[in-house]
Design brief:
25% helix, 5 strands, 99 residues
Length: 99
């Protein structure tokens, strides 16, 4: 049985790549970096495995889980302030894990 990318993301035991599709319906695989609950939303940091034009090898992208037409969907975040907040929270969690 296929499970949705969001179900995979929220499964803390999942180690498989997350597969999403771009506007041209091309498959893009990502490694999951972190799930960050912030301001009553759930953000996800994903690092592309598949090469994406304009995204460096060491870059990760931030997505938010949104409900669209009664279905949960991953939406790419392009607001720099939100991206910075998500990464700040991620680094804070990393620091706490190290302590």
């Amino acid at each position: 049985m296929d499970i949705s990318p969001i179900e995979k993301i929220l499964d803390e035991n999942n180690e498989d790549p997350i597969t999403l599709y771009d506007e041209e319906n091309r498959e893009i695989e990502f490694d999951q970096v972190a799930v960050i609950p912030l301001n009553e939303k759930i953000y996800v940091i994903l690092k592309p495995i598949t090469e994406i034009e304009g995204v460096a090898d060491d870059e990760a992208l931030v997505f938010v889980i949104e409900e669209i037409e009664d279905e949960e969907t991953l939406v790419l975040v392009d607001d720099e302030q939100i991206i910075d907040l998500v990464f700040d929270e991620y680094y804070k969690l990393l620091d706490e894990a190290d302590d």
